Structure formats: C-alpha cells, structure tokens
Amino acid sequence: ILWSFAPHDIAIILRLMGSMPFQVVACAGSYVQPNIPDVTVTHLLFDNGVRAHIHVSWLHPFKEQRLVVIGSRKMASFDDVAKQLVLYDQRVDLREAEPIPVKGNGDEVPFSSDEPLRLECQAFLSAIETRRPPLTDGTSGLRVLKVLQAAQRSLVMNGEPVALPMEAFA
C-alpha cells in the first residue's frame, strides 16, 4: 500500500515544503494477510519543525484523498474526490500558555477543474518546446523514491526512525 498510494502524497508534500525531511517514521497494519500491510501511517519531519503525516489504506469503505495544511493563522483542506478547496479561518491561540481553539467558517476557494494528467502532459510538452526544466522532473521523482525507501526501512524496523541525509532542494 505504501508504494501504491503514498508516492503522490509525498510528491505534494515535498513540493509544498521545498525541502527534504530529515527523518521518516512509518508503521503499518496487516489485517488481510500476514506481513502484507493494508494500512500505513508515515510521518515526515522537517528541519523547520513542520511535520507531515500520510495515512494510506485500501481497507477503508470509502474513497478519500484529502490534503490538510495547518498554518499559524488559517487552515486549508483540499478534497481531491469532491474537487473542493476550502480555506478555514481557524487557528489555536495561546492565552497564558493555554491553547484556545478559534474556530471560524470555511470559504471555498475556486480553482481550475482541468484534468491533472492533461495539465501535466501540456507542461511536459511546453518544457520540451521551451527547453525549460519541467516542474516535475527526474530529480523530484528521485526525492520521492528516497522518502519511500526510508519509509520502507522504517516499516521493516517496526517503526524506528530513519534519518535522511540533507541535500540541496532546487
């Protein structure tokens, strides 16, 4: 399940972060067949304190592909199944060292509903025509593979953290 469902999530997180995680921790559950994970939870830890969590499962009774980004002032949620992006005026304030949730309404953010694969193909053709590097290139694919390999090592080691060497991220 990790290698089937998580690569896209990892690619998005790496693109948003603009850097590689320094550590990866992954755990799995094997419910249908022993030693064949049906569910994995992968944690990516970044130098700036950001943590990303990826949960993938082929056992869920519903299809859900959701990206949630929690910022210091707002939160965003992208639902890939419903094709909906919502920005929430929601945060946590600290008052006398006590966290106070501030819940606000969500506002839907319009975005292009063009087919992602078509856009990716157009971007690839444009990169060839203009001789500019594509947004998603072999280097970005290699970075995703490095994170997947670290997650796989962590799974094999029963959830032990796996360090990734720091590298430049262009």
Enumerate how many helices there are, as a single number: 3
| Major sheet attributes | 4 strands, antiparallel
CATH structural fold name: Dihydrodipicolinate Reductase, domain 2
Shape: globular
CATH superfamily: Dihydrodipicolinate Reductase, domain 2
Evaluate the radius of gyration.
18 Å
What is the SS-derived class? Answer: alpha+beta
- Spans of at least 5 consecutive residues whose pLDDT stays below 50 are none
User: Which whole number gives the mean pLDDT?
Assistant: 91
N to C succession of SSEs: HEEEEEEEEEHHE
Corresponding CATH architecture: 2-Layer Sandwich
Q: DSSP strand (E) fraction? A: 25-35%
CATH hierarchy class name? Alpha Beta
Could you give the count of β-strands? 10
Q: How much helix, percentage-wise, in residues? A: 25-40%
Query: Strand order within the widest sheet?
Result: 3-2-1-10
How far from one another are the termini?
Answer: 29 Å
Q: What is the total domain count?
A: 1
Would you kindly provide a brief summary of this structure?
With 170 residues, this protein is of the alpha+beta class. The chain has 3 helices and 10 strands, in the order H-E-E-E-E-E-E-E-E-E-H-H-E.
Any key phrases for this structure?
170 residues; alpha+beta; Dihydrodipicolinate Reductase, domain 2; 4-stranded antiparallel beta sheet; 3 helices; 30% strand
Per-chain topology:
Elements: H1 2-17, E1 23-29, E2 39-45, E3 51-57, E4 66-70, E5 75-79, E6 84-88, E7 91-95, E8 98-102, E9 106-108, H2 116-130, H3 138-156, E10 162-163
Antiparallel strand pairs: 1-2, 1-10, 2-3, 4-5, 5-6, 6-9, 7-8
Helix pairs in contact: 1-3
